[in-house]
Amino acid sequence: TGTMKDEYKYSGTIEPKDTVDVTASMTGTVKAVNFKEGDKVNKGDVLFTIDTKDLENTIKTNKASLASADASIQSAKTNLELANGATMQTQIENAKNAVTNAKNSIATAQTALDTAGVSVNNAKTTLDDKQNTYNINKQLFDAGGLSKQALDDSQTALTAAQNAYTQAVNSKQQAEVTLSQAKSSLENAQKSYDILVNQTSKENVTKAQDSLNTAQASRKSVQAQIEASESKLSDAVVKSPISGTVSECNVTAGAQLLTAKTPFTIVDLNTVDIQVNVSEDVVPNLKVGDSVQITIPTLSNQAITGHISEISDVSNADGTFKVKMSNTDGKLKAGMFAEVNFAKSTSDGAVIVPRDSVLRDGDDYYAFVIEDGKAKKVDVTIGIDAGETIEVKSGIKASDKVVTKGQTYLDDGSKVKVVSDNGTEITEATTEATTENPKAKKSKGENK
Hints:
By secondary structure, the protein is α+β, with helices and mostly antiparallel strands. Helices cover 40% and strands 32% of the residues. The protein contains five helices and 17 strands. It has helices at residues 53-83, 87-143, 148-198, 201-235, 438-442; strands at 2-22, 30-33, 40-41, 46-50, 237-239, 244-249, 264-278, 291-296, 300-311, 321-327, 337-354, 359-361, 364-371, 374-385, 389-394, 416-421, 424-431. Strands 1-7-10-9-8-11 form a six-stranded antiparallel beta barrel. Strands 2-4-5 form a three-stranded antiparallel β-sheet. A two-stranded antiparallel ribbon has the order 16-17. Strand 13 (364-371) and strand 14 (374-385) form a beta hairpin. It starts with a strand and ends in a 6-residue tail after the last helix.
């Protein structure tokens, strides 16, 4: 008796359980590399470091900006305090005075414009008179009735009148511009006064508070940049997240960190996985945690025990399912070819006989047992067939002596005798020739 197993055999390749690509969250010049391919590392070991000079300069610049932001906050706080104090009344009084001054300026400008208008009229009258005198003198001079000197004096007076008129016109135009500016100033002063008078203290406080909030938000932004930069300082020291072996190293001290390649790859070879694709009729018989027998042909035929760690819920394109096994005894190495035996079914305490001792007649199975020196044919029900041995579920007890050689020449009730080989009793039957046993007569002395 013993344990019988109905097994499936699949092949797969051994792979490391954990393979980790170690990257850096920042770029820059590699300052130092502490390991090379093939080296063993422990979790937390520093694999390489990145130069942080530029990052440190950035932090200094941001700290200067932080000081400027603090100054802006202080100024905004002062304005808020002023908005809550007596400053508003002073501003209103000043705005009122500005309106009064603008009105006075308009009055002055209007007086100047009126005066300039009178001056223009007087200058025009004088100019007309001098022009008429000159015209008369010119006619007299042409007729010989006036001296050249008198004509020249008349010309000089006319020129002076023309200049005076032009100056009066310019003065009037300037007075008009001054009046327009005074009116515009009054309009602006009146608007400023109205805004101040109509604004409430709450509105002023709100604006001042908004300015303070903006300044404080600016400071937070700069502070966040500083903290992010300081966090990157720690990122410049790249450590191994697991213990294992360096399988790839793509960094060199003094060179720029290449983003196209993974700097380091660490594999954990202490625990390995074997992945195989099994048919769908096998999957229902498997569960995570089941033990499996693993054989490595290149090592030996001795089976190594592993355990199912993962069973895929989704089938592959060919209808098979991925099943993964783990082993931690250190004997299995990544890249090795492995054979995995899954137990389809198990029978403990089974009655086990050599496969050849069970004969078949159509759909029926039978065997011969020895009782009182005779072969007794017994019908049997078989179970798990392991190739060289087979399970008998009924018809044979563990104490029975089963004929294992010569059984094909027996009939029920044939007389037999047990022979031995090297002193060890074995279940061979030698038939005796009798008239009742034609088969035995045919094979006497030869068949066992």
